[in-house]
Structures are given as C-alpha cells and as structure tokens.
Amino acid sequence: MGEQYRAPDLVNYAFSLGGLYLVGLMLPQLVKTAADVMIWIMYFIMIVPLMMVPHYTELCTPDQANVITAVSGVSFIAMVLLIRGIPTDVSPIIPVEPQLYWLAIATFSLSTYAYMGLNAGFTMASLDLTQVYSIRDSYRDTIASQGALLGYLVRLQGNVINPLLITRGATGGSRWLITAGFVGQFLIYSITGFKTTILSGIGILVVIAGIRVVRHLSGLHVGAGIIGFVSLSLAADLVRGTSLWTALFIDRFILVSGNLAAAHWAVFDQNPVIGWRDSFLSFLGPSPYLSTAGFTVGKHMTGNAAVQANANYVADGFANLHLTGVFIEAAVCAVVVAGVASAGRRLPLTVTAGVLFTPVIALVNSSPITAIITNGFLLAAILFATAPRSMWADAPTESSSRSGRR
C-alpha cells in the first residue's frame, strides 16, 4: 500500500498530542444529538490519525506533518463551532403516512436489487475479507461499462436504506427488518467487495446497544469503545499469529486517514491544484492531471494507476485549493452534519445514530461534497424529515438543548 515508517520527532509528536487534547476539549461533553455522535466518530477515526500519523510516515516531510497537524486541528474546531451555530430546526419536518413511507423504501430497494441483478448479476461471495479485491476489480469494470447509475444506487442502498432497515428492526420495528437489512448488505458486498458494507450492520447494532446501555453517553464512552475495538483486533492477531484484523480494522479503518493526507500533501504541495475541476466545477476546464486526485495519489503511493486513494476533507480540500480548500470543505462538512442532524431531531438518538453510522464512516474517507449524494447524507435527511410519527411518538427525542456542551 506504499506505507513506510519513520521514527517521529518526539518534540513535534508531543506538541501534536497536546494539540489533539486541546481539540478534544472543544467538543461536546455529552453525546445528545446525531451531530454529537458524528463529531466524536470523526474525531477518533479521522482527526486523531490526521494529527498523529503524518509524523511517522515517510510519505511527507516532518515540516509538512506539522502543517497537517495544525490545519487538521484548527479546521475541525472551526467545523464544530459552525455546527453549533447552525439552528437545530433548520431542516423542515414533513412526516408522511407509514404505508407510503415503507412502500417508497420497498420500491426503491426492489428496483435497486433488480438493476443490480440485470447489470452485475448475483453471486454468493466468501466472507473471507482478504478475498475481495478480485470482486472489486470486476465491479469496477461493470461500472465502467454500464455507467455510474449502478454505483449511486448501490451506495444509497448500502449506506442508508439497509442501515435504516436494521436500525428500525432493532428499535421497535419487526425483527425481520434486521434480516432484510443484513441480506441486502451481503448481496451488495457480493458484487462490490466493499468490506464496510458487510461489517456496518454489526457496527450499527453495537452503536444502538451502547446508546441504550450508557445512561449519560459522552465522548469518553465513544473513545473507550474504539480503544476496545482496537485492542480486540490486536489480541485476535496476536493469538492467531496474523496481521489480518490489524490491517483491516486499525490500519484501513483508522490510520489510513492520516497516511493518505500525508500522501496528498506530498503530491500537491508544490504542484498545481485541481480546483474541483474533476467534479462539480468541470465546466471551468480540464483538470491539470490525467486522473482524479484519488488515482493520482494512489499511483504516487503504489506505482499502480488503478489504485484509488480516496481521502477526507483535509486531504481532498488541499488537493483542490490548498489550505483554502481545506477550510471550504470543512464548512461544507459542517453544513452536511448539521443539516442531517436537524432533519432527524425528532427521532430517537438510537435511530439517527444507527442510520448515520455507515455514512459517517464513509465521510471519513471521502470529500463531504461527494458525501452529500454518493454517501447518502441527502437521502438520510429526506428519510428523517419524512419519517412517520410512529417512529418517534413513543420514544424520547433528541434534545435540541446545548446544555452540557463545551
């Protein structure tokens, strides 16, 4: 994967750790809303590696590592402050009848699976997560030949619709909804090889259980849960004498955020920026590169032009407009988080956190501009805003109060 270790400068590393602590002090103490859940998840699996990993990867210089640390911390604080400043009732609430709501979801799901079957076919993939790369290659070829619609439908179904089914089944709905959600995720995994899709259902159930068990959920609880997750992965590999779980759940799930940011800095620090001309500003002219930022960085890291290094708002923003781009994408990320949290303000926290678990994991590894549609935040907001009253009538809602927040 092009990852190389170097011993970090201990003084710089200590300052980064202190800065990380100060950023943590700016976050909400108690986790009361969907926005709080997303903020803390982003902090632990995106900001922590962004501020620490560049110091011990050879992909960037020590000076660049210091800049990445500072920019990541300051931009995240700015994002959190902007989220706080956006009114919690900014999104309209338009509940529909339950029959219409679930009919629309069923119609979308059946149409998606039918389109998947016609264009990619259905096969039963192995649950061995090390054997997914051939599946991904085949899926990439299918997208190239059939068009982007399949990719959008698969992402929306896997990131939002199936998580909604699992979440509703675990929070008062029929238990068959959990089964339907897991079966759907397995079908998507079988044609795409996306590991996050097959594992997200388990994560959703863990998040829901954690919110129910912990009476006053805080950032410390979220951090403890992630540390426990990391510890179990390490222990499993030590017992089995492998590095599988470490590679999948620590390196790929957490550390890669900082590693890819370092690679983006190395590629674009002294080279022309893209200015989003390979996405929504393509009408301004062609990109100065032959491929998107992700493929350009992937080739830099591995020498393979087919490797795509998707990255978060810090890396993607820098590739598009250097430091200005980072803060632009941080602002977009804040609007996305605040908007979808506002749409779900009447729903129980177990529901909003369960549905948003997969999209926010995707947000950690992609541009927030892309995440609005591709990763499902817009669809999640629509589903929250139109949710029938029966989904919140007998359950405690998320408080819009800012009490107890720093």
Describe the structure.
It is a single chain. The chain has 406 residues and is mainly alpha-helical. Helix content is 67%, strand content 0%. The protein has 15 helices and no strands. It has helices at residues 10-25, 34-52, 62-85, 98-119, 133-146, 149-170, 176-192, 195-213, 219-240, 244-268, 293-302, 313-343, 349-364, 368-371, 377-385. Helix 8 (195-213) packs antiparallel against helix 13 (349-364). The longest helix is centred in the last third of the chain and has 31 residues, at 313-343. The protein is globular, with a radius of gyration of 21 Å. It starts with 9 loop residues before the first helix and ends in a 21-residue tail after the last helix. The model is unreliable at 394-406 (pLDDT under 50).
How would the global form be characterised? globular
DSSP summary, beta strand count: 0
Instruction: Point out poorly predicted stretches.
Output: 394-406
Q: By helix and strand content, what is the structural category?
A: mainly alpha
Helical amount among residues, as a percent range?
Answer: 55-70%
- Mean pLDDT across all amino acids: 87
Distance between the termini: 39 Å
Evaluate the radius of gyration. Answer: 21 Å
Which percent band covers the strand fraction? under 5%
Secondary-structure element order, N to C: HHHHHHHHHHHHHHH
Report the major sheet: none
How many helices? The count is 15
